[in-house]
Design goal:
Elements: E1 7-10, E2 15-18, E3 30-35, H1 40-43, H2 57-76, E4 81-84, H3 88-101, E5 105-107, H4 124-129, H5 133-139, H6 151-168, E6 173-178, H7 180-191, E7 208-214, E8 217-225
Parallel strand pairs: 3-6, 4-5, 4-6
Antiparallel strand pairs: 1-2, 3-7, 7-8
Helix pairs in contact: 2-3, 6-7
Length: 241
């Protein structure tokens, strides 16, 4: 009766190669994307790209629940590196997660929100009714408000930022706290038909998405999940855009 060998034989060259010396399957690169917690601007339906506003009491509850979820995830599937947008609302959300996980925070400018330039701070209703903003974008995705970004330039920046992070950390798990438009634009591009489908991927505050890199593309393992949020921490309104 033959005994199972722990190595493979190369009969052509007459050498033995131990299994441990064979190349291993590379680890998959994972991106964990989290939208920041609810702010006063979210509640009041005001566009804040580069502007900022404090978290609401509901947003604070979202932060606590999300930090707890990420701590558990980190325990089961360790996170290698943690990036955050430079905007205060994202950093407030990320700070609690960093404390819960023990991960240091790295600021990544490319994770910032869609900037509207001179049209920042206006309500969604005003932008829709007075500027026909979403109508203009549907007709021309290169349209940008004065000193602001266009959907096309913003999408290119968002995709490039995440591709750069994935290239910087191959085979690792990368956590990023960022923004609603950023996440919806990326998910629509990678999981939908095109970036124009962003509304279908609009995330709730503190929603969690986990993406797995497969070849040149990405697969959604978890998409905009809020199962960790208690009912009292979930929004009771729909964004007016």
């Amino acid at each position: 009766m033959s005994r199972q060998s722990s190595h493979t034989e190369n009969t052509t060259e007459g050498t033995a190669v131990h299994a441990d010396a064979l190349p291993h399957q590379p680890m998959q690169t994972r991106l964990i994307l989290i939208r920041h917690a609810e702010t006063e601007a979210n509640l009041n339906q005001v566009w804040h790209g580069d502007l900022d506003a404090p978290l609401t009491p509901r947003g604070q509850a979202q932060v606590i629940a999300t930090a707890r979820r990420l701590a558990e995830l980190h325990r089961v599937q360790p996170i290698d590196v943690f990036y955050v947008s430079p905007l205060p609302r994202a950093q407030s959300t990320a700070a609690a997660i960093a404390e819960a996980t023990g991960l240091p925070l790295l600021i990544e400018p490319g994770l910032r929100e869609f900037g509207l330039g001179d049209w920042e701070g206006r309500s969604f209703r005003e932008l829709r009714e007075l500027e026909n903003l979403w109508g203009r974008w549907e007709a021309d995705p290169t349209f940008a408000p004065p000193n602001g970004e266009s959907p096309r330039s913003f999408n290119q920046r968002a995709i490039q930022t995440l591709n750069d992070l994935a290239a910087r950390h191959p085979g690792q798990t990368v956590l990023a706290v960022t923004h609603g438009a950023f996440i919806s634009s990326v998910l629509a591009t990678w999981l939908g038909a095109h970036a124009g489908e962003w509304r279908a991927f609009d995330p709730h505050n503190c929603a969690v998405s986990i993406l797995i890199q497969e070849g040149e593309g990405w697969r959604g393992e978890v998409v905009n999940d809020i199962s960790h949020l208690p009912l009292a921490a979930r929004a009771d309104y729909a964004s007016d855009y």
